[in-house]
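Supplementary Text 2. Reproducibility record for the structural model of the 81-residue chain.

All settings were left at their defaults, and a single model was retained for analysis rather than an ensemble. We include the record here because the model underlies the residue-level annotations in Supplementary Table 4.
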Amino acid sequence: PGCVDDAAESLVHVGDAGLALDAAAQGLGRATVPELLAAADLASGRVVALGEARPYRLGYWLVAPLPQWRQKKVKTLVEAL
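Retained model, structure tokens:
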């Protein structure tokens, strides 16, 4: 199975954790994703964890419908983060 490892060096960046997990499950490397998002894949054995989960101080998730991403205030927030 693939692996989830928050200590791995990143060579490829993907748009979301789901794509990272899919790539790891297909044997394309390691994924650094929030443990909560990997829980089902870990439980099913689709991926395995390498080492213990570690806290990460810079975790932001922005979810909004596409039209809101075009708003100046949303773009400003994304830029600031």
